[in-house]
């Protein structure tokens, strides 16, 4: 699952199918940890996750995903995963 940061709001967004095991597990636990690696650079975040089926929020998550990765394929079962970021750990290049 690709994750897109929304640092102004302290959130991160993902998209997945509403019937996926991932979505079911998130609905149960409400906890999430994600990591992304690019060569020697990596970042991870942890927080609470909410699975949201509201069409407006799903469109926002899809739009953010498309800006970062690519336009997602059509999926009428899609839900948004809204992550409230609680912890971040990273090894990133200095600017």
Radius of gyration: 13 Å
**CATH homologous superfamily?**
Electron Transport, Fmn-binding Protein, Chain A
Instruction: Give the number of domains.
Output: 1
How far is the N terminus from the C terminus? 27 Å
Walkthrough of the structure:
It is a single chain. Helices cover 24% and strands 46% of the residues. With 95 residues, it is α+β, with helices and mostly antiparallel strands. The protein has one domain: Electron Transport, Fmn-binding Protein, Chain A (Pnp Oxidase, Chain A). Strands 1-2-5-4-3 form a 5-stranded antiparallel β-sheet. Strand 3 and strand 4 form a beta hairpin.
Give the SSE layout:
Blueprint: E1 4-6, E2 11-17, H1 21-29, E3 31-38, E4 41-52, H2 55-68, E5 78-91
Antiparallel strand pairs: 1-2, 2-5, 3-4, 4-5
């Amino acid at each position: 699952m690709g994750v897109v940061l929304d640092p102004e709001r302290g959130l991160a967004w993902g998209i997945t199918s509403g019937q996926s095991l991932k979505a079911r597990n998130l609905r149960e636990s409400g906890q999430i940890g994600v990591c992304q690696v690019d060569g020697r650079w990596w970042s991870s975040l942890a927080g609470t996750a909410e699975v949201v089926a509201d069409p407006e929020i799903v469109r926002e998550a899809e739009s953010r995903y498309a800006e970062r990765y690519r336009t997602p394929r059509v999926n009428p079962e899609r839900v948004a995963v809204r992550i409230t970021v609680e912890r971040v750990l990273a090894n990133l290049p200095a600017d």
